Amino acid sequence: MAANMGAHEVMELHEILSGAIDGINQIQLLLPHVRDGQLRNICINQLRFMNDEYNAMVRMLNQQGAGEAAPYRSPRNQAPVYGLDHPAPQTPNAGPEEIDDRDVASILLSIHKAGAAKKMIAALEIANPAIRRFVQQSAVNCAEQAYEVWQFMNQMGWYQVPTMKQITTDTMLHTYQPGSADAANAGYGAWPQ
After folding, report:
1. Residue 177 in domain
2. CA-based Rg of the chain, rounded to a whole angstrom?
3. Backbone angles phi, psi at 15, to 5 degrees
């Protein structure tokens, strides 16, 4: 009798679930180091969401693909600050007692970036459509959580966005022009009916 899932997708799901546990555990370790109230709220809200999403995925897998991932809704939505304004030098901490809000935010951002990448790659390997959609939504959720943390870091001046001269930006981006609608058929004649 054939299994209802491929070996590769089982291994991808194992990696996703293990990574989810690791992310939840890391945030729990970081919470005692948080001093900023806004960052604390972000951590707690994301921790709750990550735990709920993990539990939903486990339930879905135990029920053979029934269920959907809820989208992450960030309460933050502000315009990014562009440009560099005397960024502070960065060095590794001498010990865990030096972990501060900037460190916590940076680690949280890394957790979500890694989760988004890992989950999207996994979604490309999953054959079951319901599980694939769940994992895709979970990847988007990681991206949204990362952006929420990035916005906080940007607001605090911890993640600054270097820019180019406007003429350089315009020159680079305006070199791309719309393609011909016939480009897909170029050289191939009419597609078979």
Report:
1. no
2. 21
3. -65, -40
The mean pLDDT value for 160-183 works out to: 87
Checking if the pLDDT of 1 tops 50, the result is no
Q: Which helix (H) or strand (E) holds 60?
A: helix 37-62
Answer whether residue 16 is part of any domain: yes
Distance between CA atoms of 187 and 33, rounded to whole angstroms?
Answer: 62
Which tokens sit at 62? 């135990």
- Count other C-beta atoms under 10 Å from residue 16's C-beta: 23
Domain that holds residue 146: 7-87+97-172
- What's the token pair of residue 83? 């440009």
| E strand or H helix at 164 | none
Three-state SS for 24? helix
Question: How many domains, the chain?
Answer: 1
Amino acid code (one letter) for 150: W
CATH code assigned at 27: 1.20.1260
Mean pLDDT in the chain?
90
DSSP string, 78-100: -PPPBB---PPP----SSGGG--
Q: Measuring CA to CA, how many Å separate 43 from each of 73, 124, 151, 157, 178?
A: 14, 29, 14, 19, 42
